[in-house]
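Subject: Protein record for review, amino acid sequence with backbone structure tokens
How to read it: Take the token row as a discrete description of the fold.
Enclosed: The protein record, placed directly beneath this head.
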Amino acid sequence: MSIRWSKNVVWLALLASVALVLVMASSSLAAKDGKIIWKSSGHGPASDPSQIYHDKLCNAITEATGGRLTVKPFVGGSIVPAYKEVDAIDQGVLQMGYTCPMYNLDKWPAAGLISSRPGGLPGEALRTWFDYGGGADLLNKMMGGYNVITFPGALSPLPEEVFFHSKKKLETLKDIKGLKARCMGDGGEILKRMGAATVIIPGGQLYEAMQRGTIDAFEYSTLASNWNMHFNEVAPYVYLSPSRAPSDPQVVFVNKKAWNELPDDLKMTVRAVVAKFTQDQHEYLVYESIKAVDKFKAAGNQVFKVPKEIEDALQAEADKFYAEKSKSESPIFAEIYNSMKSFGEAYNAIK
């Protein structure tokens, strides 16, 4: 057994050496042929529709460019820890990523504004503001000093998030106090001010966290996404409301240096493919979320609207929170907040 095992080790080592030589050779050939290879990561587990669309996007760019730009997709957490994708893009470990702005609050407090936030813009309005109302430019201004950029068309607004999947009923404002809940971004800070015990947990760990009793409730993406992640099995109650997150935006970010080195025709192709897939994902999840309501009910979950008392308290606390942050943070915070607020008022005026 030991001799046979040793031979296997030798063969494996030999194969690894040959593979390394081939990889190096192919890299050299790629460089001579003028082909470019990018690495890109989503932020979720393989079953998350956002990760699925990220992978489709990468493959579509490779196909659309005839392989001149090959974008290799990676699952969230496989190259860098989940939610650290933008840091990896900045450092050149990744050239592209698809993630939520709010996962970068440690660097940019204003990132939570362009994310799943209380009182934010609904999906259609958010994408329009981002593409035509100066949103992408403001996001790039916020990221100034980092080797990361985005562009119009790169934001997928997605439908409103599920307010909470919960083990506990939420009937009055008192039920928020002491609730152990996974809640990210500004929404998490605001709910904490309302008395909830909020924590940050990656999406791929939520199922187990609910099973273990680490948390009582959590927010995560849309009804369609959450059905695919089998959350119906760990939380009997589903609470719906646009008050905490009227949209669940995710953005394609790219390494600035890698982007600037692309030929202009490849830049145009990448932007066109990105714009198509971010919009496709939004429409897909709107449609699938409508169907998912019945799936949750059929699985035995009870689906409720969030009590108005909780919605009103959340909005009031959000108004205080953003008024304080607009004064205490760097000027870009108020600039983004006021831009979104003005656009929202104009948008609502035509509705």
